[in-house]
Amino acid sequence: MLDIHNLTCGYGGGFSLKDINMRVEKGELMGIIGPNGSGKTTLFRAVTRILKPERGSVMFEGRDIRRIPVKELSTGMAIVSQGAEAGSMTLEEFVLLGRTPYFNRFQFLETSKDLSAAEKAMKLTGTYGLRDRPMSRMSGGERQLGLIARALAQEPRLLLLDEPTTHLDIAHQVVIMDLIKKLNRDLGITIVVVLHDLNLASEYCGRITLMKNGNIYKTGTPGEVLTYQIIEEAYNTVVVVEKNPVSSRPYVLVVPEEERNKKNIKYKDR
Which of 130, 244, 124 is nearest to 184 (CA)? Predict the structure, then answer.
């Protein structure tokens, strides 16, 4: 579904990704994690054509994304990014923006198919009852569901999400991640999601890519990536990794400085 070959790109003399190689198979739910400044968002921008590669390529279904017309690419790949502006639009009006790639050259009004796709997207995200509410009057969790609904209205095969649980409380984080898992499992949508929360990545993702300093540090299953040794090396902090008693997946516990000092624990000594 997505193939990244020897990708190098950045911001002109500043931070850059270096020779990134990553493959996302059709039907996967891939999580991307890493410390602040590790390159997660830069990689996201390269995959979504915001950043032009200095070297290498990003392939979507075997084709270089730079050679796919934007309108065509938008019917196969949808993006949920942070900070999308909605103005005073209602939720339904906002979700219908996801149908723009399907408009004909001189089309100005939505067709019945567009309205049906938007309705389906809102029902999938549990927001259909909010369709007449302005986006500006929605809570953070409702707004995030609206952003996902707009992306689903594009009827994508690949869904890219940039930190969709940021600033949400734990209940809304679970709602968002349960929805992402459902879309992947029940609809077969391939999903790549950038996450800060290691435990959410562990619980919901089939594979995880850990980034550090513009490089891919480790890729594998949650059990392969989320060991205390790897986390401490990547994040330069002390953690304890246990198994979630329900799912048996890795669960990362932080160790406060006071406790580290009491026991004289340093991450490099472990």
Answer: 124
Question: Which helix (H) or strand (E) is 41 found in, with range?
Answer: helix 40-47
181: in domain: yes
22 phi, psi to nearest 5 deg: -150, 140
In a domain, 94, yes or no: no
Domain CATH code at residue 165 = 3.40.50.300
pTM confidence score: 0.89
> Cα separation of 30 and 201, whole Å?
9
The answer to whether residue 123 sits within a structural domain is no
CA 25 vs CA 43, 61, 127: distances in Å: 17, 10, 30
CA distances from 13 to 17, 23, 51, 54 (A): 12, 27, 14, 12
Q: Which two structure tokens, joined as six digits, stand for 56?
A: 């290498």
Q: What percent of the chain has pLDDT over 70?
A: 92
Alpha-carbon span 254 to 240, nearest angstrom? 6
> Domains in the chain: how many in total?
1
| Residue 50 burial (CB count, 10 A) | 13
